[in-house]
C-alpha cells in the first residue's frame, strides 16, 4: 500500500521571484494554493499490509519504519514553476536525493527569437519544463532537456502568417542529452525537410497536432546511433536501425508493432519471429495477453524455437527448442496457478484474501533424453522414456505477499536407483528482503511460511 501524506500549509514564493511576470498565470496572489497542496504529497510511505493496517483516507500511526519518499517542492507552488528556475527534490527511502530542475519557457519565443505574429505578449504565457536531472550520488546534473515553441502556419506556404495556439501546444521537447548520449525529437509533418537546431536535426510542425516523435538517440559520443520511424501519419515510432560507427549495424522490420526481422547489415544474417494471424487485425477471438508474443523465433543459423502460451496469464506454456543431433527437440512445459495475497484490511488485524489473484509459475518439466509426448486431457505431456527420464521442478509461494518460499527438483538418481526430491527454502523480512536460503542437503520436507 502507498500511503500519501499532505501538508496543509506551504512555503511562500521565493522573494527573488516576486513581482516577475505579474500577468502570467497562475497569479502570485494564488499561492501557496490549498488545492495544490491537497493533491501533491509531502511524503509517500510504502506499507506492507500483510504486517500492518493503515487507513488510506485518514491519518494513521505506523508501528514500523516503512520506506518513505520525501518530496521537497519549491515555495509558492504552483506558480514557482512558472517563474524562472526552480529545483524540486525527491529523497528516497535510503536518503538518496534526486534533483529536478525546471525552467519556465516563454511560449512567445521560437529558436531564441520573439515571434512577430504571436497572439499574446511576451511573459504572459509561461510553461514549466523539466530541463535537468541530477541523480542520486551525482555532484551535478547528468541529464538535460531542451524545448522549443511549436510553429503552426495558417497556410503551409505562407511563412508570414504564423499563429500559435499557445494553450494547447506551447512547446515541445526537441533534444534530450546526457553523459551517456542524446536524443532528438520531431513533431509530425516536416516543412522543407526539417531544420537544424544546434547541430541536431529536428522537425517543424506545419499543421495538425501530434506528440513529439523520437527521431534518433546518439550513444557513447556518437559511436552508436538508434534511428526511429518518423514521418506524417507514422505514430508507432519504433526503432528501425541500430548503427555502429565501428562494428556491425542492424535493421528492424515489424508486423503489427512486433519485431519480425532483425538483419545484420555486415553479414546479411537475419533473425526472425512469427506471430498468430488472428493478432494482425482486431478480432474477437484474439487474446490480448498472448497475441503480441511470437509463435516461433528463428536465429541467424535458421534454428527455430517454438512457443505456446498459457491463455489465462499470457505466460509461456511450452518452449520447444530446435532438434539436437539425434533429432530430438527438447520441450520445457510450464504450469501456472492463480494465487491470492493476504493483507490486513481492518484495525483488528484480521487478514483478508485479496479479491483478485495473479498467475504464478508452479512447475517446470522437461525430458532428459527422450521425446516429449503430446499433451492429453489428463496430462500436460510426458516423456517417451517414462518418469525416470523426466526432471520436475516446482515452485511454492507460502507467504502472504506471495514471495517464493521454496523450490523442489525431482529427478531419477542412478546411484540410489530411484527418483529423489531436493528442496530449497527461502525466508523474507517484512520489507521483502530475502533473509535466509537453505541448501538441498538440509533434507527439508517442507518450507516454513
CA-based shape: flat
What's the total number of strands? Answer: 32
Major beta sheet summary: 24 strands, antiparallel
Distance between the termini: 21 Å
- Provide the gyration radius in Å: 29 Å
Percent of residues in helices: under 10%
Strand content: 35-45%
The SS-based structural class is mainly beta
Give the helix tally: 1
Flag low-confidence runs.
152-169, 187-210
Average pLDDT value?
81
Quick summary:
With 449 residues, this protein is an all-beta fold.
Task: Explain what you see.
Mean pLDDT is 81; it is low at 152-169 and 187-210. The chain is mainly β and 449 residues long. The radius of gyration is 29 Å and the shape is flat. Helices cover 1% and strands 39% of the residues. The protein starts with a strand and ends in a 12-residue tail after the last strand. The chain has one helix spanning 34-37; strands at 2-5, 43-46, 68-72, 85-91, 97-106, 109-110, 113-114, 126-134, 143-148, 152-153, 162-163, 172-178, 181-186, 195-197, 200-202, 213-219, 224-228, 239-244, 250-255, 258-264, 270-274, 296-298, 304-309, 316-320, 331-339, 342-344, 351-353, 358-367, 390-396, 406-413, 418-428, 434-437. The longest helix is centred in the N-terminal third of the chain and has 4 residues, at 34-37. The protein contains one helix and 32 strands.
Helix and strand topology:
Blueprint: E1 2-5, H1 34-37, E2 43-46, E3 68-72, E4 85-91, E5 97-106, E6 109-110, E7 113-114, E8 126-134, E9 143-148, E10 152-153, E11 162-163, E12 172-178, E13 181-186, E14 195-197, E15 200-202, E16 213-219, E17 224-228, E18 239-244, E19 250-255, E20 258-264, E21 270-274, E22 296-298, E23 304-309, E24 316-320, E25 331-339, E26 342-344, E27 351-353, E28 358-367, E29 390-396, E30 406-413, E31 418-428, E32 434-437
Amino acid at each position: 500500500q502507498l500511503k500519501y501524506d499532505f501538508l496543509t500549509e506551504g512555503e511562500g514564493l521565493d522573494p527573488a521571484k516576486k513581482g516577475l511576470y505579474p500577468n502570467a498565470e497562475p497569479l502570485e496572489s494564488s499561492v501557496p494554493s490549498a488545492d495544490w497542496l491537497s493533491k501533491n504529497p509531502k511524503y509517500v510511505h510504502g506499507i506492507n499490509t500483510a504486517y500492518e493496517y493503515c487507513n488510506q483516507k485518514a491519518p494513521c500511526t505506523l508501528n514500523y519504519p516503512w520506506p518513505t519518499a520525501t518530496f521537497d517542492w519549491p515555495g509558492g507552488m504552483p506558480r514557482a514553476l512558472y517563474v524562472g528556475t526552480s529545483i524540486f527534490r525527491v529523497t528516497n527511502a535510503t536518503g538518496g536525493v534526486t534533483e529536478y530542475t525546471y525552467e519556465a519557457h516563454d511560449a512567445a519565443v521560437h529558436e531564441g527569437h520573439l515571434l512577430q505574429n504571436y497572439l499574446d505578449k511576451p511573459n504572459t504565457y509561461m510553461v514549466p519544463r523539466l530541463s535537468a536531472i541530477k541523480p542520486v550520488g551525482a555532484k551535478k546534473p547528468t541529464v538535460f532537456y531542451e524545448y522549443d515553441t511549436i510553429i503552426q502556419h495558417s497556410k503551409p506556404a505562407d511563412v508570414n502568417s504564423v499563429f500559435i495556439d499557445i494553450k494547447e501546444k506551447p512547446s515541445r521537447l526537441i533534444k534530450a542529452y546526457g553523459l551517456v548520449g542524446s536524443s532528438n525529437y520531431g513533431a509530425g509533418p516536416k516543412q522543407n525537410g526539417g531544420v537544424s537546431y544546434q547541430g541536431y536535426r529536428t522537425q517543424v510542425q506545419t499543421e495538425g497536432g501530434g506528440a513529439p516523435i523520437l527521431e534518433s538517440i546518439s550513444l557513447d559520443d556518437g559511436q552508436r546511433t538508434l534511428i526511429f520511424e518518423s514521418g506524417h501519419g507514422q505514430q508507432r515510432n519504433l526503432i528501425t536501425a541500430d548503427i555502429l560507427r565501428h562494428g556491425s549495424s542492424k535493421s528492424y522490420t515489424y508486423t503489427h508493432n512486433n519485431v519480425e526481422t532483425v538483419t545484420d547489415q555486415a553479414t546479411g544474417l537475419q533473425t526472425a519471429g512469427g506471430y498468430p494471424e488472428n493478432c494482425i487485425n482486431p478480432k474477437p477471438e484474439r487474446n490480448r495477453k498472448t497475441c503480441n508474443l511470437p509463435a516461433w523465433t528463428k536465429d541467424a543459423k535458421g534454428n527455430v524455437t517454438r512457443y505456446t502460451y498459457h491463455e489465462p496469464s499470457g505466460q509461456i506454456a511450452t518452449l520447444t527448442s530446435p532438434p539436437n543431433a539425434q533429432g530430438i527437440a527438447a520441450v520445457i512445459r510450464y504450469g501456472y496457478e492463480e494465487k491470492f495475497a493476504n493483507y490486513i484490511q481492518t484495525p483488528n488485524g484480521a487478514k483478508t484474501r485479496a479479491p483478485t489473484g495473479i498467475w504464478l509459475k508452479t512447475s517446470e518439466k522437461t525430458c532428459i533424453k527422450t521425446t516429449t509426448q503430446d499433451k492429453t486431457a489428463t496430462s500436460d505431456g510426458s516423456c517417451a522414456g517414462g518418469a525416470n527420464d523426466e526432471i520436475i521442478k516446482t515452485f511454492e509461494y507460502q507467504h502472504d505477499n506471495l514471495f517464493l518460499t521454496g523450490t523442489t527438483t525431482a529427478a531419477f538418481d542412478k546411484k540410489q536407483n530411484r527418483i529423489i526430491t531436493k528442496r530449497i527454502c527461502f525466508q523474507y523480512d517484512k520489507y521483502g528482503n530475502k533473509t535466509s536460503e537453505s541448501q538441498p542437503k538440509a533434507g527439508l520436507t517442507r518450507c516454513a511460511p
